[in-house]
Design brief:
By secondary structure, the chain is α/β, with parallel strands linked by helices. The chain has a domain of about 120 residues: Peroxisomal Thiolase, Chain A, domain 1 (3-Layer(aba) Sandwich). The chain is built from 14 helices and eleven strands. It has a nine-stranded mixed sheet with strand order 3-2-4-7-1-8-11-10-9. A two-stranded antiparallel ribbon has the order 5-6. Strand 2, helix 2 and strand 3 form a beta-alpha-beta unit. Helix 1 crosses helix 2 and helix 7 crosses helix 11. The radius of gyration is 19 Å and the shape is globular. The two termini are about 10 Å apart.
Length: about 375
């Protein structure tokens, strides 16, 4: 892993109605990332994307003039793919399958297909996923918020957590977004009282417990550490990358585990990250956790070893996740505050932090942990200064 680096990051604007096709958003983000690295589309010979992205790699290659591709790959499970696309790029570069790999995610999730709404296609799919969804859709558990709400309620029952504990995550993310000009909620912090007054979406989840619906695109460029030295932007070293799926895994909520109030897939990822990098939670100068729903942010802190089981609410309340705390959380505002780009914008934020160019810059971060979507087979990264 240490022989590879992220050398370019690029993004479109984040909006609620882009006015462009998803293919155009992908191309804009990729061109921006290549420009950041000082590379041309013709330098790219590998592409990795989300399985559910609507813009095929060959279409992107045609539109941008990439020429021949020697490697291409797709990762499934929605937001769980965020860090895994980088892992695939690392494996390709390290194994000699490609020299320069582009990773991207682009969609119109607000003006187009809205993932937060009920999708009849999910239960009608002619696949094992359709069968899985068929067990809970008839009971009205048919949106991501509804599935997460079951875990949240069980977590509250097991550990005495409250809606206010969830709200503190939302307040913190919005506080950081409020000082980030690229964030949708720039200049719009919220208070805990406002969180508590926001309308109920799926009890106990309120509106401000749920991430945004965003139109936009974001891209990353990965190459070898050796080639990175000659490129335009400061490279960021990929110290570790991992994927993980837990026993009895379903999607969003694994109903049949003995312990429902847990995310063992993230524990699988965390163990690999710590073991392969030789680092520990105390070595992280910032953490970028996938915050599609506030309760899952708390559970990740526990699964990754930042605190014990049931102790995340107290950790958040302690102030240790503030910008001046021990583990600054989501300095860009996260998906609750900046934008919901399936977590890839969190990787870009980690790169900015390690380059020293972030809006809410953390002092000497050293290493940054990034996670992908939870409740699904997921992934994670540890990035470090080159």
């Amino acid at each position: 892993m240490t022989d590879t680096a992220i050398v370019g990051i690029g993004a479109t604007d984040f909006s609620k109605e882009s006015g462009r096709s998803e293919l155009r958003l992908a191309c804009e983000a990729i061109r921006s990332a290549l420009g950041d690295a000082g590379l041309e589309p013709s330098d790219v010979d590998g592409v990795v994307r989300f399985g559910m992205d609507t813009s095929d790699e060959i279409a992107v290659a045609r539109e941008l003039g990439m020429g021949e591709l020697r490697f291409f790959s797709r990762i499934g499970y929605g937001g769980g793919a965020a860090c895994a696309i980088v892992q695939q790029a690392v494996l390709a570069v390290a194994g000699g399958a490609a020299d320069v790999v582009v990773c991207y995610r682009a969609f119109n999730e607000r003006s187009g297909h809205r993932f937060g709404q009920v999708s009849t296609g999910a239960v009608a799919a002619p696949s094992s996923a359709g069968v899985d969804n068929g067990w809970h859709y008839p009971f009205g558990i048919a949106t991501p918020a509804a599935t997460v709400a079951m875990v949240a309620r069980r977590y509250m029952h097991e550990y005495g957590a409250t809606s206010e504990d969830f709200g503190r995550i939302a307040v913190l993310d919005r506080k950081h977004a409020a000082t980030n000009p690229n964030a949708w909620f720039y200049g719009k912090p919220i208070t805990l009282a406002e969180h508590q007054e926001s309308r109920m979406i799926a009890d106990p989840l309120r509106l401000f417990d749920c991430c945004q619906e965003t139109d936009g695109g974001i891209a990353l460029v990965i190459t070898s550490a050796e080639r990175a030295r000659d490129l335009a932007a400061p490279p960021v070293r990929i110290a570790a990358a991992a994927q993980g799926s837990g026993p009895d895994q379903y999607t969003m909520t694994s109903y049949y585990r003995e312990d429902i109030a847990a995310l063992p897939e993230m524990s699988v990822v965390g163990r690999q990250l710590w073991e392969s990098s030789g680092l520990r939670p105390e070595d992280m100068g910032a953490i970028v956790l996938y915050d599609h729903f506030t309760p899952y942010t708390l559970l990740q802190l526990e699964e990754l070893g930042f605190c014990g089981r049931g102790e995340a609410p107290a950790l958040v309340a302690s102030g240790e996740l503030e910008l001046t705390g021990r583990w600054p959380l989501n300095p860009h505002g996260g998906q609750l505050g900046e934008a919901y780009l399936h977590g890839v914008n969190g990787i870009a934020e980690a790169v900015r932090q390690l380059r020293g160019t972030a809006v809410n810059q953390v002092t000497d971060p050293g290493h940054v942990l990034v996670t992908a979507g939870t409740g699904v087979p997921t992934s994670g990264l540890i990035l470090g200064a080159a």
